[in-house]
Specification:
single chain; alpha+beta; lipopolysaccharide transport protein A fold; globular
């Protein structure tokens, strides 16, 4: 039943993005049918405009919301999303914000300039000025984060910098994943981790 509910949620979310774009494409088709085109003459300007809008404009303020198998609430919002003209399975989004609400109460917010979302694989690759903030006190900056829309998962193919309750840190890579044995969510840093420890000042 849970899998069916998740599928319904995902289906509705993607339809909010796909249907507006499909409408623009249909409008473009109707325009072409309603006019006679004489071979050898210039293409109608309206045809180019409508097709360009269907590809470039896409849907504004789209959102995705779902619940993973362990109860984590995952939402993703963008200022604009449009299909990739070279692969319609991909949706290209701008000004993206993603949030994971874990069952433990921890909240993870991720923002980026762009995102590439795959409709069937349920992946979201966030790119450009990626900033991750956790309610436990971590702030992480990197160039790219590879994440998923159906479960708690995020990794960086490159270096990260940030701050934590213990101080500032640098690392070659970062992983956020769920332990299959315990079910606990782990945030791991690898590949040459450096920490500039800042002692906590206690109030007397």
């Amino acid at each position: 039943m849970a899998r069916s509910d998740n599928f319904h949620t995902q289906f509705v979310a993607w339809m909010k993005i796909i249907l507006p774009v499909a409408g623009l494409l249909l409008l473009s088709t109707l325009f072409l049918i309603s006019r006679k085109y004489v071979p050898g003459t210039a293409l109608p300007v309206a045809r180019i405009d409508l097709e360009q809008r269907a590809q470039d404009q896409g849907a504004t303020n789209p959102s995705f919301a779902g619940v993973s198998d362990n109860g984590t609430e995952i939402t993703l919002q963008a200022r604009r999303a449009r299909p990739d003209p070279e692969d319609m399975q991909h949706l290209l989004a701008n000004d993206v914000s993603m949030q994971m609400r874990l069952t433990s109460g921890v909240i993870i917010d991720i923002t980026s300039d762009n995102a590439d979302m795959h409709q069937t694989r349920l992946t979201a690759n966030l790119d450009g000025n990626v900033h991750m903030i956790t309610s436990t006190g971590y702030q992480i900056r990197t160039a790219t984060v590879l994440s998923r829309l159906d479960r708690v998962y995020a990794e960086t193919p490159g270096a990260v910098t940030g701050s934590s309750p213990g101080g500032e840190f640098w690392a070659g890579r970062m992983f956020l994943d769920r332990d299959k044995t315990t079910g606990h969510i782990h945030l791991l840093f690898t590949d040459g981790v450096r920490l500039l420890y800042t002692p906590q000042v206690t109030k007397e």
